[in-house]
Amino acid sequence: MDFVGYAERAAVLTNASLGSLEEVRGYLAEREWLVPQVTDADVRRLQRFQRRLRPVFEHGRAGQGREAIAVLNALLASHRITPLIVPTDDAGTDVGGTASGWRLHVADRAASVADLVVAESLMGLAVLVCDLAPGRLGVCAAHGCTNAFVDLSPNCSRRYCSERCSSRANVAAYRARKKAGSTSEGIA
Q1: 85: left (phi > 0), else alpha (psi -120 to 50), else beta?
Q2: Do residues 134 and 65 touch, judged by C-beta distance below 8 A?
Q3: Which end of the chain has fewer CB within 10 Å, C or N?
Q4: pLDDT, position 93
Q5: How far apart are the C-alpha atoms of 124 and 119, rounded to whole Å?
Q6: DSSP state, residue 102
Q7: CA–CA separation, 51 vs 143, rounded Å?
């Protein structure tokens, strides 16, 4: 189970536009086996979950770890997570199982698409904040951007959701310094 990947998908989910069945299918495009299973009920559940999940990232970046954990715990309490051990493609018939033959799913086979996505998001975030700290969750510092992200940098220094936002912010800061410098030269 890739908990960091699940946490990163939770950030992508938080940022995704999920206003329609097609948008949810687009969000799930890389997981093509889930796409045909998406229902209108999944769309509504994922939209509600998005709204409730965003504060986890906002509190994380604001240094409000206890608040991030409180929101995450409330989400964990309100969503059913039913772990299930399933064979991998190379699972043998050994009853004892091997590390390479089994993996853990966060939802049982009866789970809806929304149940699965929510369970993965919550388990990924829960493990991440326990292992690395709530401060690893954040919201982009670029002006006008509200995208959530997971900070996996060695020194927990990430401030932007993407290289694009980082570059735009750096260019804007450079231009502001240059303008301030030329203005002060004109005064002298």
Answers
A1: beta
A2: yes
A3: C
A4: 47
A5: 8
A6: E
A7: 21
